[in-house]
Amino acid sequence: MLAEPTETKPSKQSKALKALPISYPLTQNILNYLDYLRSLNPVPKFWLPSGKIVFGYIIMPDRHLSDRAVFNIVRDTSETFWPHLFRETVASDLVKQDNSIITAFKVQKRLDLEDMRTRFNYLQRFAKDVIKREFD
Length: 136
What we know:
Number of helices: 5
Number of domains: 2
Radius of gyration: 19 Å
Structural class: mainly alpha
Order of helices and strands: HEEHHHH
Largest sheet: 2 strands, antiparallel
């Protein structure tokens, strides 16, 4: 929560998070955005607060931006940028990091896939590069 930052012990889940160095090109933009959120009254509870357009954008501080709203924002960003690209990138990274059959289960869990065939489709699509590297 942005309004009440607290210190917590690292958990298994937090170990997967990456830290960005101050020198990273987008770090200053992220810090500026956080400063902006903290300057609002009331301070939003979430990193991506929901809102509505009524003579400008009105932030709803107690509601998180919905999945559909994020999808629409990303979709409208560019013709060459689409929301499914995120899933493709995550699946590709997982396959490239681990060339074992367990990767299929990692892909399924990370992308929250219900159908077993879908996870193997990702594996088949991205494993071609891995297999080629292993046998070249």
